[in-house]
């Protein structure tokens, strides 16, 4: 882990930095994100920071990574959805994404039982990270996204969080 990276929940006053990092990700990693720069460039992302538990990784005060966890509403809901895991390219392979992911799973354990996510087929480094923390594949959606003239599949993953606070991928 990087001792010079601080992880904290993002607030409404972080929205400018959050949006800038998100838009940069959409421009440089288009094949791995299920949205587009054009769709999000004019979106007010302030509600995103209030409706979900969004963490930021900060280095020297600069936002360098994000990860979000949304909770499904309703009395019968026990599932959360992990989304928006992104780390700036120059800080990858240094434990920043793992730091964000572990922090979000800690939040999830206190509120829900299952966490779902999707990862675009071909994003093997992300998939290895998720599998190393206990996520298992439970399905693949072919042709989930179309980028230019090619289709990309989406891998659906799930982790079952047991009541002892340990991650368990069994169902």
Protein traits:
8-stranded mixed sheet, 171 residues, alpha+beta
Strand and helix map with partners:
Elements: E1 5-9, H1 15-28, H2 37-40, H3 46-51, E2 53-59, E3 62-71, E4 79-87, H4 96-109, E5 114-120, H5 124-132, E6 136-147, E7 150-161, E8 167-168
Question: TL;DR of this structure?
Answer:
By secondary structure, this protein is an alpha+beta fold. Helix content is 27%, strand content 37%.
SSE-based structural type: alpha+beta
Largest sheet: 8 strands, mixed
Could you tell me how far the N terminus lies from the C terminus, measured between alpha carbons in angstroms? 30 Å
Helix content: 25-40%
Task: Write the H/E string, N to C.
Answer: EHHHEEEHEHEEE
How many runs of DSSP E, i.e. beta strands?
A: 8
Unreliable stretches covering 5 or more consecutive residues:
none
Fraction in beta strands:
35-45%
Calculate the mean pLDDT score and round it: 86
Rounded Rg = 16 Å
* Bulk shape: globular
Please tally the helical runs, counting DSSP H or I stretches of 4 or more residues.
5
Structure write-up:
Helix 4 (96-109) links the parallel strand 4 (79-87) and strand 5. The mean pLDDT is 86. The chain has 171 residues and is α+β, with helices and mostly antiparallel strands. The protein is globular and about 40 Å long. The protein has 5 helices and 8 strands, in the order βαααβββαβαβββ. Strands 1, 2, 3, 4, 5, 6, 7 and 8 form an 8-stranded mixed β-sheet that branches.
């Amino acid at each position: 882990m990087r001792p010079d990276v601080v992880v904290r929940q993002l607030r409404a006053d972080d929205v400018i930095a959050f949006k800038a990092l998100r838009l940069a990700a959409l421009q440089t990693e288009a094949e791995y994100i299920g949205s587009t720069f054009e769709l999000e460039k004019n979106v007010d992302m302030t509600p995103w920071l209030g409706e979900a538990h969004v963490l930021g990784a900060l280095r020297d005060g600069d936002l360098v990574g994000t990860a979000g966890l949304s909770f499904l509403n309703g009395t019968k809901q026990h599932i959360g959805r992990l989304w928006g895991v992104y780390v700036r390219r120059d800080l990858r392979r240094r434990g920043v994404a793992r730091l964000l992911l572990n922090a979000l799973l800690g939040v999830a354990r206190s509120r829900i039982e299952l966490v779902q996510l999707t990862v675009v087929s071909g994003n093997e480094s992300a998939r290895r990270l998720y599998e190393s923390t206990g996520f298992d594949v439970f399905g693949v959606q072919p042709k989930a996204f179309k980028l230019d003239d090619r289709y990309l599949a989406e891998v659906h993953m799930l982790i079952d969080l047991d009541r002892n606070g340990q991650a368990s991928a069994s169902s």
